[in-house]
């Protein structure tokens, strides 16, 4: 197995911390919606989940996507490693493949009941802000990582592309979950090539037909091309209800309850 320099993880961590702080500051200056529940309690739960995810990755995944991509490249494994593509085309194709897989994976996690048990924890947040962008159950993170690694190996995506995608995925997830007000003309233009907070917020509506839309994390093209794009929430961004109807009590959404959600039998796919 090819060893990836520690600088790789340092870059990812630096981008995460820097962008998290920047978006958190921007939310305070230009909030899109008033918060409905205690931010300190939500952040305690969300940041605890982020720490748990990191521990799971460290403990159970000695091989990570970038290292796997480097190993595949050295051993000439995977589709792209068999082709003599220009580096720019190789990177573009790799980014598009990974982004499409994440979109399809997200749709699958909403469609398959067992996978929805894992994913619904993400949807129980009663407000949206930058911290929600990393609020995923450790089991979902682990499964998503396995899927991503399988795609990296199958297609032979090069390590630089995988690293760039990992950074972009995390950055866009924090951005599109941010409680950030963007001037309407700019937002309309921006959502043509990037998923905006207003676009992704629809996905966190309690209304199932809105929850089952806008599955993309970075590029909006897959939702538009594959028929899952929903422009605006029925009740407007200021009046829409965020979360799931079955999980409405903040005092029951501490970190230990969140970690137990996949084992609960409640069907959180109900609503109007």
UniProtKB/TrEMBL annotation:
Residues 92-228 form the Fatty acid hydroxylase domain. GO terms for cellular component: membrane. Its main location: membrane. The chain crosses the membrane at residues 12-31, 43-68, 88-104, 139-157. Keywords: Membrane, Transmembrane, Transmembrane helix. GO terms for biological process: lipid biosynthetic process. One of its GO terms (molecular function) is oxidoreductase activity. Pfam families: FA_hydroxylase. InterPro entries: Fatty_acid_hydroxylase, Sterol_Desaturase_Related. It is found in: Membrane. PANTHER family: STEROL DESATURASE. This is Fatty acid hydroxylase.
């Amino acid at each position: 197995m090819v060893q990836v320099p520690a600088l790789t993880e340092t870059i990812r961590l630096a981008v995460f911390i820097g962008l998290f702080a920047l978006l958190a500051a921007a939310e305070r200056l230009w909030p899109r919606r008033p918060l409905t529940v205690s931010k300190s309690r939500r952040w305690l739960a969300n940041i605890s989940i982020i720490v748990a995810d990191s521990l799971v990755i460290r403990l159970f995944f000695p091989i990570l996507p970038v290292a796997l991509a480097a190993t595949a490249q050295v051993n000439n494994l995977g589709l792209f490693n068999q082709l003599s593509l220009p580096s720019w085309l190789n990177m573009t194709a790799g980014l598009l493949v990974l982004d499409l897989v994440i979109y399809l994976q997200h749709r699958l996690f909403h469609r398959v009941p067992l996978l929805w048990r894992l994913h619904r924890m993400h949807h129980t947040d009663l407000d949206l802000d930058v911290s929600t962008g990393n609020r995923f159950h450790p089991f979902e993170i682990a499964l998503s990582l396995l899927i991503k690694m399988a795609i990296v190996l199958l297609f032979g995506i090069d390590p630089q592309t995988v690293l760039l995608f990992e950074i972009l995925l995390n950055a866009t997830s924090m951005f599109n979950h941010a409680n950030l007000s963007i001037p309407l003309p700019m937002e309309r233009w921006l959502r043509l090539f990037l998923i905006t907070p207003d676009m992704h917020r629809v996905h966190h509506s309690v209304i199932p037909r809105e929850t089952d839309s806008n599955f993309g994390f970075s590029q909006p093209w897959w939702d538009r091309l594959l028929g899952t794009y929903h422009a605006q929430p029925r009740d407007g961004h200021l009046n829409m209800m965020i979360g799931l109807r079955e999980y409405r009590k903040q005092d029951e959404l501490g970190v230990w309850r969140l970690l137990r959600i996949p084992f609960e039998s409640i069907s959180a796919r109900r609503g109007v």
